[in-house]
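S.,

As promised, the N-carbamoyl-L-aspartate run. Input:
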Amino acid sequence: MENKNLIDLEVMTPQQIDKIIKKAQKIMKNPSDYRHSCDSKILATLFYEPSTRTQMSFQTAMLKLGGRTIGFDNPMNSSVSKGESLKDTITIIGGYADIIAIRHPIEGSATAASLYAGVPVINCGDGGHLHPTQTLTDIVTLSCEKGKLDNLKIGVCGDLLNGRTVHSLIKTLAKYKNNSFVLISTKELSIPLYIIDILEKNNCKYEFSDNLAESIGGLDVLYMTRIQRERFASEAEYEAQKNVFVLDKEKLAAAKDDMIILHPLPRNNEITVDIDDDPRALYFKQAQYGMYGRMALILLLLQDDEFFIDNRETTVSEHKCSNPKCITQQEDYLPNLSYEKKGMVMCDFCDKRMD
Ligand code: NCD
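Predicted complex:
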């Protein structure tokens, strides 16, 4: 069972990703064929941060597979409020559940949990870092609605700095042929450099834009995101960024007829409500697709021994990661795990450079 986790979709091959999508599509067609697939299995959902879709779609996915769920959605109602470490909580829950889905405000927390769980761990969002099962949701949607994951011009708009869904999505789509990206944001909320590195490594075309109206015309996909208020240092900084990019009917008029609009949700004001009835607005349908993607993921992690083993080689580094948002700064028993990328030493928890 070792290393059978979903922390970051990036370490999966396109073939493995394809296997999840195909499985999700099979389940969609005949959901009742799967209603006893996880009889007697237990999913723990440990949500240290608010969630509607991710938590409930995981719970629904397990219930539809015949399994059951335990967990918390407010850590203050658990022993976390008494100062219990992540290690201790996870060690205990790993002894109760067959699989763990965790969301946590600190970067690298899912990797940290995977060290102690003894059962598969699924990253449901670790701070501003990654959100691989949202990406699964997004690519199941693209496969069903566009019929492909390559040759797409994708605009991502909003909080590209803190939006973990965008980071995971770009990391995954960069691996497919001829995808290009338009990165639409203010300067303050532009995409982290490590994501640009990934685009370059994969020879992906990308451009920066600060104007949604001007950029919308050539897009096949527009991925809107919320400004992540909870990740700002001050309310004033958030106020300066909110409502800068709003997709409304006027801007949408310049878009292609077959462009699709995605959004991980929740929405604030970045898409006006009158767009919801436009056939290109797929964000509510996207959340439905996500549930099937999660059913497929649970099945493959629990039942297919060959499915996915994370073989990334790590070593213990002499130094601690200096990223103040990294879980190693908070839970000091964690080993300084690192891996090498292009001759650089990277933190295995938060993917930031350590040297
Ligand atoms: C996203 C998240 O939690 O990162 N929500 C989700 O899981 N669908 C996006 C967000 O909160 O803005």
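Residues 283-303 form the longest helix (21 residues). The first strand starts at residue 42 and ends at 47.

- D.
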